[in-house]
């Protein structure tokens, strides 16, 4: 059996071919024991009550996979931090916290979305702290769906402007933050997304060999995952969605 990790699909109604490719991907996971979705699954999520044709299609596809005895775990990203228990119940998946530690064979792995590691981007970290505040989220979800849609539109525009004005180095992970996250979890291996820079990084810290596996973001033509099996260990894979 295999364990799969994906992130940063940024599913949206405008990218129907991406959604179709993702559904085909799920249907192809015949050997999947577990699937971990590490954030930014949707481009925006304004609440479980804002049901759309896209959310329903994705829920049904995930439910089909779960009914094949595959455990599905979902972690919040910076785009979809309002996904809640109602969506997960409909989709047959389970929310997990940032920094969750799992076992792959005899090795422990810490899982993150990855945005918490980008500590050099102080402006973003301030916004992140506000958006992850339960009181702010409760106030936001009390607004009408129309009001939430408008907020999400403005937030996306501001995020794009911030990305254009901020250097790639600042928006990438901070090495000290990575080591601190590994130390806090008590592990030597990390898997995350967010940065859209798929790679496997290896280094030494405190006389320990450490690894950081980074997932890639999906497009309408290609996807990325990490596949783990007992025979082959971790494999970072790029594949066509067409």
Instruction: Indicate the radius of gyration in whole angstroms.
Output: 18 Å
Quote the distance from N terminus to C terminus: 26 Å
What is the beta-strand fraction? Answer: 25-35%
**In CATH, what is the class?**
Alpha Beta
Oligomer: single chain
Compute the number of strand runs: 11
Task: Give the helix/strand class.
Answer: alpha/beta
CATH architecture label name: 4-Layer Sandwich
Rounded average pLDDT: 95
Biggest sheet strand line-up: 4-3-2-1-10-11
CATH superfamily: Metallo-dependent phosphatases
Q: Order of SSEs, N→C?
A: EHEHEHEEEHHHHHEEEEE
Please describe what this structure looks like.
Helices cover 36% and strands 26% of the residues. With 242 residues, the chain is an alpha/beta fold. The protein has a single domain (2-240), classed as Purple Acid Phosphatase, chain A, domain 2. The protein has a 6-stranded mixed sheet with strand order 4-3-2-1-10-11. α1 links the parallel β1 (2-6) and β2. α1 packs parallel to α2 and α2 crosses α3. The longest helix is centred in the middle third of the chain and has 21 residues, at 145-165. It is globular and about 55 Å long. The model has no long low-confidence stretch (mean pLDDT 95).
Write the layout of secondary structure elements.
Blueprint: E1 2-6, H1 16-28, E2 32-38, H2 53-66, E3 71-75, H3 85-91, E4 94-96, E5 100-104, E6 107-111, H4 122-131, H5 134-141, H6 145-165, H7 168-171, H8 175-185, E7 189-192, E8 199-205, E9 208-214, E10 222-229, E11 233-240
Parallel strand pairs: 1-2, 2-3, 3-4, 6-7, 7-9
Antiparallel strand pairs: 1-10, 5-6, 8-9, 10-11
């Amino acid at each position: 059996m295999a364990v799969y990790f994906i992130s940063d699909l940024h599913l949206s109604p405008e990218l129907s071919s991406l959604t179709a490719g993702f559904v085909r991907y799920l249907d192809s996971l015949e050997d999947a024991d577990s699937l971990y979705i590490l954030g930014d699954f949707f481009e925006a999520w304004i609440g479980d009550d804002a049901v759309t044709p896209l959310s329903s299609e994705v829920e049904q596809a995930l439910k089909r996979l779960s009914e094949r005895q595959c455990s599905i775990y979902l972690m919040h990203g910076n785009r979809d931090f309002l996904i809640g228990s109602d969506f997960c119940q409909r989709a047959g998946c389970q929310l997990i916290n940032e920094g969750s530690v799992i076992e792959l064979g005899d090795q422990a792995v810490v899982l993150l979305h990855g945005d918490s590691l980008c500590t050099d981007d102080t402006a973003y970290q301030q916004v992140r702290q506000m958006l992850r505040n339960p009181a702010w989220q409760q106030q936001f979800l009390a607004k009408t769906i129309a009001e939430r849609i408008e907020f999400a539109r403005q937030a996306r525009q501001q995020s794009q402007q911030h990305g254009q004005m901020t250097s790639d180095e600042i928006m990438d992970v901070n090495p000290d933050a990575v080591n601190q996250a590994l130390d806090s979890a008590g592990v030597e291996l990390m898997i995350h997304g967010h940065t859209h820079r798929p790679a496997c990084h290896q280094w030494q810290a405190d006389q320990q060999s450490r690894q950081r596996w980074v997932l890639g973001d999906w497009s309408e033509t290609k996807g990325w995952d990490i596949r783990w099996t007992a025979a082959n260990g971790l494999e970072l894979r790029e594949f066509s969605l067409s």
